[in-house]
């Protein structure tokens, strides 16, 4: 009898713990999985005279990939994102390296936290504050004209370069964090052994440190790619409307035309691009090492 | 000698930090500008733009909206994340791998796409654009992080404490709220603060899913259409300061949570 009672209690307990996962799961299914599924469905529907019609066809996809100015947003986005990722890695790697190997351990954490603090500035504000620096009457043009280096202010804001600048600023901080976290995990015995065996400083870096730090670079680069290619604010505020990236194109479809099927096509294309990038970087993405 | 050898490193470090802090310094400095343009020459300091900002009713209202959404969505997120982490850690449910995949999946999808999907769905089922919808969106994007943080702190030692509480006659709710939750407090607070910070900063979901009751980032975005003004600087500085504060507090909780574990 008492045995039975104990088993009952145990069963009830298991019931509850199983139940505990459900609310979060159901919430995610309703507000994340379902919307994505609906988007996939709608991307195959048509918009006729401003109304959604459930006539299935791939016409929207054909239109997106067959129309130059629409497809251009995708190539623009990929170019900008790749440039952003590459430049951010080039800037962040030396910074992470210096922090990990040239700064005394006592100061490393302090400087690291200091270096990534503005990462948490609100998105809109961060892009806006770059305008203060690069706009026609911004700091850089002010300094350059007063030094007599240039006569006319440089047109830096509202260009592709401005978008990339805003992105690079943000993602240099992120990549510094992931690369640093990787570098400090490399055992000093590895490069000490290499040095003992006669390797030069350059050889140690190229054949020991660099290969072992690839996971940190890959994780940071992947996150950079995912966030940058889906960001609307930075290209909208800094890039202006000289060229349109996919997120801006999506917003135009939503706000101007209320064309949800086309916006869905673009969103799904964006997700597919991310899946492809994930497939390429997956073997380096050992999240637990970072 | 060592200093000389490391000089290029220090120079790079200073240059990199200058690059990182340049826009922040400019933003904060010109929020105290005593003129109509937030550019050189600096003529302040003056608090007039802060006064103007606080007199801007729409801005103050959006500030309140932002605070409400951040706090309420973070409470829901932390609660759901805590329950899910507890369920996953205590008893491996069937399809545990699949459940974890679904719970973590929103992390890999752009906020814009999540917002788009929700916009279309809410349209279909007839939930109007509102602050409530924004809150739902913020729970979606923050749930994976909260779940991951709390789940990572569920050690085996808690399993025994959990059994002990039950053997002593505690009910499910009592075990959860009076035994497990207090032990998990640092990671619960950390995930609450982190989620509040991200919600506070978030733009695109708030922009697409709200109509009249907008949040602060949306108002700042709208103010930008009028061009550069020190008032935007003042609002931006305030957003930045509050972000720093919450992220500082959550960093302290994360630190306590991880120190307690090892």
Assembly state of the chains shown: heterodimer
User: Judging by the overall fold, what is the CATH architecture of chain A?
Assistant: Orthogonal Bundle
- The largest sheet of chain A has its strands arranged as 1-2
Major sheet characteristics of chain B = none
Which homologous superfamily in CATH is the superfamily of chain A? MetI-like
CATH superfamily of chain B: MetI-like
Could you explain the architecture of this structure?
The complex is a heterodimer of chains A (290) and B (262). Chain A has 290 residues and is mainly α. Chain A has one domain: MetI-like (MetI-like fold). Helix content of chain A is 75%, strand content 2%. Chain B has helices at residues 2-5, 7-30, 48-55, 57-90, 96-104, 111-125, 131-152, 156-167, 172-183, 185-201, 204-209, 216-223, 230-261. Chain B is 77% helix and 0% strand. The mean pLDDT of chain B is 84. In chain B, helix 4 (57-90) runs parallel beside helix 7 (131-152) and helix 4 (57-90) packs across helix 12 (216-223). Classes of the chains: A mainly alpha (290), B mainly alpha (262). At the A-B interface, helix 1, helix 3, helix 4, helix 5 and helix 6 of A face helix 2, helix 4, helix 5, helix 6 and helix 7 of B.
Short descriptors:
heterodimer, A: 290 residues, mainly alpha, MetI-like fold, two-stranded antiparallel ribbon, disordered N terminus, B: MetI-like fold, 77% helix, globular
In short:
The complex is a heterodimer of chains A (290) and B (262). Chain A is mostly helical and 290 residues long.
Helix/strand layout:
The complex is a heterodimer of chains A (290) and B (262).
Chain A: H1 2-42, E1 46-48, E2 51-53, H2 59-66, H3 68-101, H4 105-116, H5 123-134, H6 139-146, H7 160-183, H8 188-196, H9 201-212, H10 214-229, H11 233-239, H12 246-257, H13 260-281
Antiparallel strand pairs in A: 1-2
Chain B: H1 2-5, H2 7-30, H3 48-55, H4 57-90, H5 96-104, H6 111-125, H7 131-152, H8 156-167, H9 172-183, H10 185-201, H11 204-209, H12 216-223, H13 230-261
């Amino acid at each position: 009898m008492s045995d039975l009672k104990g088993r009952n209690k145990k069963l009830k307990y298991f019931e509850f713990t199983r139940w505990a996962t459900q609310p979060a799961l159901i919430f995610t299914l309703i507000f994340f999985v379902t919307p994505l599924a609906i988007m996939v469905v709608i991307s195959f529907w048509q918009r006729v005279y401003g109304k959604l019609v459930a006539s299935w066809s791939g016409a929207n996809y054909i239109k997106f990939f067959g129309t130059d100015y629409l497809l251009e947003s995708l190539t623009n986005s990929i170019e900008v994102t790749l440039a952003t990722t590459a430049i951010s890695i080039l800037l962040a790697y030396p910074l992470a390296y210096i922090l990990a190997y040239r700064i005394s351990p006592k100061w490393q954490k302090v400087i690291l936290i200091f270096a990534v603090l503005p990462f948490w500035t609100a998105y809109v504000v961060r892009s806006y504050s770059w305008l203060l620096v690069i706009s026609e009457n911004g700091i850089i043009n002010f300094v350059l004209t007063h030094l007599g280096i240039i006569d006319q202010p440089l047109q830096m804001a509202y260009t592709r370069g401005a978008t990339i600048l805003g992105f690079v600023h943000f993602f240099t901080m992120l990549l510094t964090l992931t690369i640093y976290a990787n570098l400090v995990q490399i055992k000093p015995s590895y490069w000490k052994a290499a040095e003992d065996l006669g390797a030069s400083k350059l050889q140690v870096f190229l054949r020991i440190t660099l290969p072992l730090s690839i996971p940190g670079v890959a994780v940071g680069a992947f996150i950079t790619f995912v966030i940058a290619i889906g960001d609307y604010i930075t290209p909208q505020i800094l890039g202006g409307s000289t060229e349109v990236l996919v997120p801006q194109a999506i917003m135009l479809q939503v706000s101007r035309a209320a064309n949800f099927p086309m916006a869905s096509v673009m969103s799904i294309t964006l997700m597919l691009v991310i899946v492809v990038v994930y497939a390429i970087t997956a073997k380096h993405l050992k999240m637990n090492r970072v | 000698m060592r200093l000389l050898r490391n000089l290029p490193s220090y120079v790079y470090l200073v240059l990199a930090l200058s690059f990182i802090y340049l826009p922040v310094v400019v933003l904060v400095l010109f929020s105290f500008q005593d003129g109509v343009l937030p550019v050189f020459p600096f003529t302040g300091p003056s608090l007039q733009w802060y006064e103007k900002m606080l007199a801007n009713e729409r801005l103050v209202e959006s500030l309140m909206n932002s605070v409400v959404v951040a706090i309420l969505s973070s409470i829901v997120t932390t609660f759901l994340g805590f329950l899910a982490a507890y369920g996953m850690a205590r008893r491996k449910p069937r399809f545990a791998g699949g459940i974890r995949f679904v719970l973590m999946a929103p992390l890999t999808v752009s906020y814009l796409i999540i917002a788009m999907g929700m916009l279309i769905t809410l349209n279909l089922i007839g939930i109007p654009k509102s602050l409530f919808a924004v809150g739902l969106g913020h729970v979606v994007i923050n749930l994976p992080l909260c779940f991951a943080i709390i789940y990572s702190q569920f050690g085996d030692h808690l399993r025994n404490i959990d059994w002990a509480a039950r053997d002593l006659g505690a009910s499910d709710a009592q075990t959860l709220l009076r035994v497990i939750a207090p032990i998990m407090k640092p990671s619960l607070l950390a995930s609450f603060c982190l989620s509040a910070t991200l919600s506070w900063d978030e733009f695109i979901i708030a922009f697409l899913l709200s109509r009249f009751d907008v949040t602060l980032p949306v108002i700042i975005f709208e103010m930008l259409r009028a061009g550069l003004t020190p008032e935007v600087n003042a609002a931006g500085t305030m957003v930045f300061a509050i972000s720093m504060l919450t992220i500082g507090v959550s960093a302290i909780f994360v630190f306590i949570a991880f120190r307690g574990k090892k």
